[in-house]
Amino acid sequence: MRILDHHPLAELTTFGLPARAAHFAACTSEDEVKEALEWHHHRGGPLHILGGGSNVLLTGDLPGLVLRMEVSGIREIGRTEKGPLVQVGAGVGWHAFVMEALDRNWYGLENLSLIPGSTGAGPMQNIGAYGVELEERFHALEAVEIATGETHRFDHSDCAFGYRESVFKRALKGRYVITSVTFQLLDVPELRLDYGAIRQALEEAGVHDPTPRAVSDAVIGIRRSKLPDPAVLGNAGSFFKNPVVDADRHAALVARFPDMPHYPAPGGIKLAAGWLIDQAGWKGHDRGTHGVHDRQALVLVHKGGAQGAEILQLAQDVQADVLDRFGVKLEREVNVLPAP
Ligand code: EPU
User: Fold this and answer.
1) What is the pLDDT of residues 320-339, one digit of tens each?
2) Architecture of domain 4-69
3) pLDDT of residue 196
4) Rounded to an integer, what is the distance from CA 24 to the centroid of its chain?
């Protein structure tokens, strides 16, 4: 493992914004992770872990060490009566893993097709789409404690999963590097078609008796139609989380907007941030080098030549306007680095 200085990061993130790491290490094994952490302890300074770079907005150069997770490998390490336990290196691309699982007839991840990012980053924010969240197929993970260099195992109950949440974003933030994740997959498909758009896509494709592969294809089709391909247009998926509001706020909004989408959620009622931003007139908003995506208002896009700070400014303008119009505070889903 080599430590590189002044290393460019634009191509390692899906926003494609210009920024450099003062020091950079690509780690392809747990041992290399430990080696990089030793170097970091010796040198001091901040440490940032980079996976697929699909949930980060870089607003400037990063001091200290950026550790890029590149641990590979997908293997069946055991079985339960439901199906295989599959251990995946944290650096494996999430979608590549979902495709490999389908090829091997391991089911349960099809609704999570085409989510960008690495497998190791998945549990951090409990990635989810089309009615399924990662935690439903999660078995355990291994992570190296940054302070000690020791490997720890985390079972499901250790992870405190929630909507786009886990203990790794809260109590244990910045304390562990996830090196592998083990999933409990299924031999017998349990299709989840409850999300309206999936049924519609299957119908449009003329599929009456869907297989996991058909569901995956439908999800891929829906995502491609709404979400920009980062290879073409820089972005980090949903920039904000869908906000959860209390019954009073919800009632006040429904009185004004009877058609407003809303869903029951733990702790209140979840609103669609994309809908709020769209209603406020931001969809397709264009600032030349960057803007709001024209097919999904929850996605901010980098068209080329922008600085991260300008995209952060746009995000803040959207947040202020939504707060002003609807009294709803939007929380960022994307991590901003260096921390603002
Ligand atoms: N809507 C609008 N205008 C828009 C966008 C959305 O009116 O510009 C409305 C839609 O018509 C719909 C509602 O808002 O009634 C919700 O939209 P959608 O079903 O597209 O889902 P979302 O809430 O915008 C969430 C996730 C996505 C995930 C989809 C599908 C979050 C923050 N986002 O988006 O995840 O793919 O559901 O499950 O929870 C991501 O996290 O990066 C991501 C893309």
Assistant:
1) 999 999 999 999 999 999 99
2) 2-Layer Sandwich (3.30)
3) 77
4) 22
In this structure, which residue's CA is closest to atom 2 in ligand 1?
275
Task: Give the architecture-level CATH label for domain 234-337.
Answer: Alpha-Beta Complex (3.90)
**Paired sense of beta strands 56-58 and 74-79, if any:** unpaired
All structural domains of the chain with their residue ranges: 4-69, 74-184, 234-337
Tell me if 272 CB under 6 Å of ligand 1.
yes
C-alpha 272 to ligand 1 mean position (Å): 7
- Fold exhibited by the domain 74-184: 3.30.465
> Is the CB of residue 66 less than 8 Å from the CB of residue 48?
yes
Tens-digit pLDDT profile for residues 164-197: 999 999 999 999 999 999 999 999 999 999 887 9
Residue 25 alpha carbon to ligand 1 centre in Å: 35
Q: Residue 275: its pLDDT value, please?
A: 98
Residues noted as catalytic: 164, 238, 333
Ramachandran region of residue 146, left (φ > 0), alpha (ψ -120 to 50) or beta? alpha
Same CATH topology for 4-69 and 234-337?
A: no
Question: Would the CB of 216 count as within 6 Å of ligand 1?
Answer: no
* pLDDT value of residue 1: 83
Does residue 14 line the site of ligand 1, with CB under 6 A? no
